[in-house]
From TrEMBL:
Keywords: ATP-binding, Nucleotide-binding. GO terms for molecular function: ATP binding; ATP hydrolysis activity. It holds the Pfam family AAA_5. PANTHER family: DENITRIFICATION REGULATORY PROTEIN NIRQ (PTHR42759:SF7), MOXR FAMILY PROTEIN (PTHR42759). Belongs to the CbbQ/NirQ/NorQ/GpvN family. This is CbbQ/NirQ/NorQ/GpvN family protein. Residues 22-165 form the AAA+ ATPase domain. SUPFAM superfamilies: P-loop containing nucleoside triphosphate hydrolases. The lineage of its organism: Bacteria, Pseudomonadati, Pseudomonadota, Gammaproteobacteria, Nevskiales. InterPro entries: AAA+_ATPase, ATPase_dyneun-rel_AAA, CbbQ/NirQ/NorQ/GpvN, CbbQ_C, P-loop_NTPase. It comes from Solimonas terrae. It comes from the Bacteria.
Length: 276
């Protein structure tokens, strides 16, 4: 996979650079598959820093982040966790889906994300000052956020927040071509297909197809699949378990892929599909 290619669409790269230069942590928000992880990987290359990724979840403890003592061969040995390693290395530490982590686990980040830039390893009795090269980046998808999992304002306000979304059509076509090698005309049809579904999203209330699924569809097309089949298995099938909705979307997708006049998505197709 090409981690060095990132299609810029707004101010995100400049803001990331400026935040890095001023040692301010960055919070990326946006729907699944819109390019958050790719941006962090790309910026790792641009800034010449390794990226240490931590996937956050309910059971993640502060010890999982900073480290713990373990017994090995009769000795008690301290092992740095990934956060401590990232700080010591001066890496970009990327905490993915940070909203999934419990508040008490995130508390360890407070001293690291303000002017102190210091990690307190209470159990080891050690204090680690972050080198200038260290940067913390977190991300979450606002669509998955529940009131139970709100991030505290005291946490959120420590970050520069960069809100990401899907690329404009022409740039998304460019991503598909570059990531899959598919021809431009096919990429344009796939993007048009996704756009028509995204435009119908306000009546459907599910997370619309992402750039990720479009890249997958484009890869299948590049490998010889028909556009309709590629769209069916990559774009439509993951959207909804409701067969009736999928049926309506299939008509919408077919209209885009077969070149029918779909400049304005026909919401009656969806409504008809839901009812049938
Ligand atoms: N701006 C972009 N430039 C290049 N590729 C992109 C871009 N946006 C999305 N992609 C493509 O879409 C894929 C998914 O993007 P990425 O993994 O960064 O999504 P994400 O926002 O991190 O999603 P999730 O929240 O599910 O982790 C990438 O592997 C890449 O192929
Ligand atoms: Mg990601």
């Amino acid at each position: 996979m090409r981690r060095d290619f990132y299609q810029v669409s707004g101010r995100e790269v400049d803001l990331f650079r400026q935040a890095y230069a001023q040692r301010v942590p960055v919070m990326l928000t946006g729907p699944t598959g819109c390019g958050k992880t790719r941006l962090v990987e790309y910026m790792g290359g641009v800034l010449n820093r390794p990226v240490v990724t931590i996937s956050c979840h309910d059971d993640l403890t502060s010890s999982d982040l900073v480290g713990r003592y373990t017994v090995s061969g009769g000795d008690v040995v301290w092992h740095d966790g990934p956060l401590t390693r990232a700080v010591k290395e001066g890496a970009i530490c990327y905490m993915d889906e940070v909203v999934e982590a419990r508040h008490d686990s995130l508390a360890v980040l407070h001293s690291l994300t303000d002017h102190r830039r210091t990690l307190f390893l209470d159990r080891a009795g050690a204090v680690v000052e972050a080198p200038d090269a260290f940067m913390l980046v977190c991300s979450y998808n606002p669509a998955y956020r529940s009131s139970l999992k709100e991030l505290k304002p005291s946490f959120r306000q420590r970050f520069v927040t960069v809100a990401m979304t899907y690329l404009p059509a022409e740039l998304e076509v460019q991503v598909l071509v570059s990531e899959s090698g598919v021809d431009r005309a096919a990429a344009q049809r796939l993007v048009k297909c996704a756009s028509s579904i995204r435009n119908a999203d306000d009546v459907l209330h599910f997370e619309p197809p992402s750039t990720r699924v479009l890249v997958t569809a484009a890869k299948l097309v590049a490998a010889g699949a028909s556009e309709l089949e590629a769209a069916e298995v990559s774009i439509l099938a993951p959207l909804s378990n409701d067969g009736a909705i999928t049926e309506g979307l299939r008509e919408l997708a077919a209209a885009s892929l077969l070149g029918a006049n779909t400049t304005a998505p026909d919401r009656r197709v969806i409504a008809g599909g839901v009812k049938s």
